[in-house]
Amino acid sequence: MKFRKLGRTGLEVSVVGVGTWQFGGEWGLNYTQAEADAILDKAAELHINLIDTAECYGDHLSESFIGDYLSRRKREDWIVATKFGHQFHDLFSRTDAFKPEEVLAQLDASLKALRTDYVDLYQFHSGPDQVFDNDDLWTLLDKQVQAGKIRHLGISIGSNDNLHQTAQATKVNADVIQVVYNRLDRVPEQRVFPSCEEQNLGVLARVPLASGYLSGKYKPGAEFQQNDVRNNHDAEQRNEKLKLVEEIRRNEVPEGVPMAEWALAWCLQHPAVTSVIPGCKTPEQVESNARAADLELSVEKA
Q1: What phi and psi, each to the nearest 5 degrees, are found at residue 142?
Q2: If both were cysteines, with which of 31, 93, 135, 269 could 89 make a disulfide (CB 3.0 to 4.6 Å apart)?
Q3: pLDDT in tens, 26-61
Q4: Are strands 275-277 and 150-156 parallel, antiparallel or unpaired?
Q5: Which of 217, 247, 290, 184 is CA-nearest to residue 28?
Q6: Strands, DSSP E only, in 173-249?
Q7: How far is CA 256 from CA 41, 238, 261, in A?
Q8: 150-to-99, 103, 116, 232 alpha-carbon distances in Å
Q9: Per-residue pLDDT tens digits for 201-215
């Protein structure tokens, strides 16, 4: 495994992390603690130290799996990133909750679920500009940093062209931007990444496998399980993406290299990107994801 400094935080994070939206039940599987443990144990074995979760991956459900695991391991071995701003109601159903008093309650609930006294990275979660531009919110968060509940603040931008929030990261004392970035979606290269580099922000690339489309497992016309978030995608657009994936596989992926590993390594080639945070349903997928670190220097941009 390779490691990079997460912007100006000083944290050394593995270039491949573990995304845990799947633990919340919206990717076709319901997890047991033993299954979550197996995924995180494999990550630890491979020297992955970054876990990304959120308040609304289930009602703090993903965090609870992680917290149970961490309670039986060394907390200091892990960099835990979670998020705030949404109230989970049911699968694919949540509402915004960005008022300062709501965020404070979410933070305390996240700390309880994670069974920890602090989170390493607490991220504004895909909220609109009008709630982002609330000085009272960032004043509250700064106080939580001073109290030791939060080590660093971040912004998980909803639109991957949201320069408004990215450009104000330093002003609100945020050190990290999380953004959708993958071979099918290169929008951040135009405006977001230059702003991140100018401010020395860490960058976490989420959805680096394009919701699994770049995993190499799916062909045009593929169907997904009922409680899989990809069923909410437009069917025509889904098939167009899968056709493009086939072209990329033929023209860009070196022979003998698994497409998923190549796709993660492709993201890591951009100098602004610190780490990719792919989801993983099994320990085997964690192992495949980790191998992308070894491909990092051998992949060229198209």
Answers
A1: -60, -40
A2: 93
A3: 777 899 999 999 999 999 999 999 999 999 888 889
A4: unpaired
A5: 217
A6: 174-180, 202-206
A7: 28, 26, 11
A8: 18, 13, 11, 34
A9: 999 999 999 988 898
Contact between 283 and 38 (Cβ < 8 Å): yes
Degrees to nearest 5, angle at CA 149 with 146 and 155:
90
Please give the domain boundaries of the chain with CATH numbers for all domains.
3-214+259-298 (3.20.20.100)
Task: Give the pLDDT mean for 133-148.
Answer: 98
Token pair, residue 227, equals: 């409680």
Residues near 49 by beta carbon (within 8 Å), at least 6 away in sequence = 3, 12, 13, 14, 77, 78, 79
- Interval 120-127 mean pLDDT: 97
Q: Please report which residue ranges of 160-282 form alpha helices under DSSP H.
A: 163-167, 192-199, 235-251, 259-268
Q: Per the structure block, which two tokens stand in for 95?
A: 């509402």
d(CA 280, CA 41): 13
Phi, psi angles (nearest 5°) of residue 228 = -110, 130
Record the pTM.
0.91
Residue 188 amino acid letter: P
Burial of 96 (0-12, 13-18, 19+ CB in 10 A): middle
Q: What is the largest CA-CA distance in the chain?
A: 53
Beta carbons of 278 and 266 less than 8 angstroms apart: no
Q: Which DSSP category does 159 fall into?
A: S
Q: Which residues of 262-279 are buried (b: 16+ CB within 10 A; e: fewer)?
A: bbbbbbbebebbbbbbbb
How crowded is residue 179: how many other Cβ atoms within 10 Å of its Cβ? 26
State whether residue 47 is helix, strand or coil: coil
Q: Which two tokens stand for residue 170?
A: 């330093």
**Six token digits for residue 257:** 């290299």
More confident residue, 231 or 235: 235
